[in-house]
């Protein structure tokens, strides 16, 4: 293959987006040079061992609706590295004030848990009573959810959830692009839980 300048592409950033872009371009026949400022690629996806275990940072699950992630995993020969979710992984935890807190799945149990303050729970559970913002304008997932369910619920529930999926700052991620259906619910029904 020719390495003329028209077939050579530079990719800036070795996070998951940069690495995926480089893989895709290479598959299409381009010569790719990837530039990363950190010591190793991966962006926010990394593992840090300590004396007791290994902490994995970044998204912890993969949604592969189109099959493109599975295709990449197969092309890279990583099938044996994929772990399926176990029953135990359905239990969710957050860190609040330096302590691990179990997220109760039952609404009544959640109501009496210490995951959110009473004020935070009131804002969360009063979401259906809040006025909707009649606008098609985009806003960040963080501002949208803060407006609907309150800052505390966003900090301790929504942010860990969306960070686990998108590995990004929810105050930089587009509401319309990623959770458009919830935005539609607000417009159509006045609530995101209808």
Q: Please tell me the total number of domains.
A: 2
SSE succession: EHEEEHEEHHHHHH
Per CATH, the architecture of the largest domain is: Orthogonal Bundle
CATH third-tier fold name of the largest domain: protoporphyrinogen ix oxidase, domain 3
Q: What is the global morphology?
A: globular
CATH class of the largest domain: Mainly Alpha
Q: Per DSSP, what share of the residues sits in E-state strands of 2 or more residues?
A: 5-15%
Percent helix range: 25-40%
Query: How many strand elements?
Result: 6
The CATH homologous superfamily of the largest domain is named protoporphyrinogen ix oxidase, domain 3
Give the uncertain stretches in residue-range form.
none
Spatial sequence of strands, sheet with the most strands: 1-2
Class based on secondary structure composition and strand pairing: alpha+beta
- Please give the alpha-carbon distance between the first and last residues: 55 Å
State the major sheet.
2 strands, parallel
| Mean pLDDT over all positions | 87
């Amino acid at each position: 293959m020719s390495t003329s300048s028209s077939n050579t592409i530079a990719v800036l950033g070795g996070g998951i987006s940069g690495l995926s872009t480089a893989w895709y371009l290479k598959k299409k026949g381009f010569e790719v040079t990837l530039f990363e400022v950190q010591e190793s690629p991966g962006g926010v996806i990394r593992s840090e061992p300590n004396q007791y275990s290994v902490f994995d940072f970044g998204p912890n699950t993969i949604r592969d609706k189109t099959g493109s992630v599975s295709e990449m995993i197969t092309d890279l020969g990583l099938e044996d590295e994929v772990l399926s979710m176990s029953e135990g992984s359905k239990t969710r935890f957050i860190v609040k004030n330096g302590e691990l807190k179990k997220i109760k799945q039952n609404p009544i149990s959640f109501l009496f848990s210490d995951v959110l303050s009473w004020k935070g729970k009131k804002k969360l559970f009063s979401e259906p009573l809040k006025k909707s913002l009649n606008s098609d304008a985009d806003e960040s997932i963080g501002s949208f959810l803060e407006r609907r369910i309150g800052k505390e619920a966003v900090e301790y529930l929504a942010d860990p959830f969306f960070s686990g999926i998108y590995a990004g700052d929810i105050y930089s991620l587009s509401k319309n692009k990623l959770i458009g259906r919830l935005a539609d619910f607000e417009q159509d029904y006045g609530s995101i839980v209808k």
